[in-house]
């Protein structure tokens, strides 16, 4: 116990002394382009492999699940029985966008004015670097903690993870653990313990042809589609009943979380949202269109399920002649209880590092944490604030990246040295009745 206490008191100082190491890790990952699409992360996986090899007593496994889709699993065992903690990250990024007007090299990892720039630095190569440094520091001191640390780096996340984290969870036993921490985008001031589900659909309408001057002879597919889309927006009026602890967390987090994530975040977390992202139809202004398609991103809050949305759409759209629809992607809303050990360990470490207590909140966007929760693994997302994500001059703050590394290390140390809790608490928060 004395050795553990001494080591824990040194963690923040060790990371401060390793800031240059942390930045070099992030730079080497950024320098290895891994845009998705097309989804080839071979270079980034090779760069990550080199970084993992420097961790004492590590074992690394490489899995290529499709051409260019490379996943890595690295294990560090303390040599003493205990919990298994997972650090999860994804290697793929948004397209580099060299023509977007970058003022710094997009793959250069430029550091200036307290910022580190580069495509994917926020989503999420900076967070991966923080987790790798945490693993490295703990690996140097195996006698100070129990159990094992596993790093899972996925080659497919931007396209929903079927060949990345999902594949690892289904095929590699060590990819699962007692808890998971992800350094995906967020904010040091917010510990994210859950996220909305998603329900992506495609709606197609068919008509019959006619000249645009003789509309009485045809049936306009776009008109049919418009009617279907009006019906679709009714999903936003569905009443949901969030679990009380989650609703309280969202409300409590609002003053801190909304200035970071945008005004209206709390309302979005509590409701179904419908984004009609793509509409296609027709070939000429003077022809009645015979086919029209829309692609829609529906986000699903706790308190409802994709099945309930599906049932409503089957009923509502079934009344519209010439309209059909299909599901493209679906994932249920899931959360880890805010009171769960891993959530509280991360929050405690963040309080210690930041000098103020972070808020606990849900996450609007999807991440691979949803796949861990679906597999029964309690999970939190704790990463740096994104700036310019997906656009030119993407960056994160160096101070935040250092803070993330400290929190990952301290939370991992505390979690691995704590007595196991009796139950995993992964919830969907579905009420008994839903009505529109």
Word description of this protein:
The protein is an alpha+beta fold. The chain has two domains: 289 residues, Aminopeptidase; 120 residues, Alpha-Beta Plaits (2-Layer Sandwich), CATH 3.30.70.360. The protein is 36% helix and 23% strand. It has twelve helices and 17 strands. The strands form four sheets. A six-stranded mixed beta sheet has the order 1-2-6-3-7-15, with helices on both faces. Strand 4 and strand 5 form a beta hairpin. Helix 1 packs antiparallel against helix 12 and helix 2 runs antiparallel to helix 3. The radius of gyration is 23 Å and the shape is globular. The C terminus is likely disordered.
State Rg.
23 Å
Total discrete domains? 2
CATH architecture of the largest domain: 3-Layer(aba) Sandwich
Q: Tell me the β content.
A: 15-25%
Question: What number is the mean pLDDT?
Answer: 94
Structural class: alpha+beta
Order of SSEs: HHHEEEEEHEHEEEHHHEEHEEHEHEEHE
The CATH topology of the largest domain comes to Aminopeptidase
């Amino acid at each position: 116990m004395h050795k553990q206490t001494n080591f824990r008191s040194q963690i923040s100082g060790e990371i401060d002394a390793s800031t240059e190491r942390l930045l070099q890790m992030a730079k080497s990952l950024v320098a290895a382009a891994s845009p998705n699409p097309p989804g080839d992360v071979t270079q980034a996986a090779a760069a990550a492999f080199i970084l993992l090899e420097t961790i004492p007593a590590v074992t690394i496994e490489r899995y290529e699940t499709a051409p260019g889709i490379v996943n890595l699993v690295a294990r560090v065992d303390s040599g003493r029985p205990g919990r298994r903690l997972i650090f999860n990250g994804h290697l793929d990024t948004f397209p580099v966008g060299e023509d977007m007007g970058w003022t710094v090299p997009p793959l250069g990892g430029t550091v200036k004015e307290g910022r580190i720039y580069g495509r994917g630095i926020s989503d999420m190569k900076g967070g991966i670097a923080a987790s790798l440094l945490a693993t490295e520091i703990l690996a140097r001191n195996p006698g100070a903690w129990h159990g094992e640390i596993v790093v899972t780096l996925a080659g497919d996340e931007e396209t929903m993870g079927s060949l990345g984290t999902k594949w690892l969870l289904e095929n590699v036993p060590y990819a699962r653990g007692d808890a998971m921490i992800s350094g995906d985008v967020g904010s040091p001031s917010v510990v994210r313990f859950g996220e909305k589900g998603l329900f992506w659909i495609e709606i197609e309408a068919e008509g019959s042809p006619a000249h645009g001057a003789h509309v009485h002879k045809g049936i306009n597919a776009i008109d049919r589609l418009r009617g279907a889309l009006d019906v679709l927006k009714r999903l936003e009026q569905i009443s949901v009943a969030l679990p009380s602890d989650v609703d309280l967390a969202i409300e409590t987090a609002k003053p801190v979380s909304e200035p970071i994530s945008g005004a209206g975040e709390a309302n979005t977390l509590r409701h179904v949202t419908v984004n009609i992202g793509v509409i296609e139809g027709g070939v000429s202004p003077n022809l009645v269109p015979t086919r029209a398609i829309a692609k829609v991103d529906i986000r699903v809050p706790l308190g409802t399920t994709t099945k309930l949305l599906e049932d409503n759409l089957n009923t509502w759209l079934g009344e519209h002649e010439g309209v059909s629809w299909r599901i493209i992607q679906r994932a249920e809303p899931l959360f880890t209880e805010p009171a769960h050990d891993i959530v509280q360990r991360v929050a405690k470490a963040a309080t210690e590092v930041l000098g103020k207590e972070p808020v606990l909140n849900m996450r609007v966007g999807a991440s691979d944490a949803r796949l861990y929760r679906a597999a029964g693994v309690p999970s939190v997302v704790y990463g740096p604030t994104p700036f310019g994500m997906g656009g030119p001059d993407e960056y994160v703050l160096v101070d935040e990246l250092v803070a993330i590394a400290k929190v990952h290390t301290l939370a991992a140390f505390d979690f691995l040295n704590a007595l196991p809790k009796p139950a995993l608490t992964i919830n969907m928060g579905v009420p008994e009745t839903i009505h529109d």
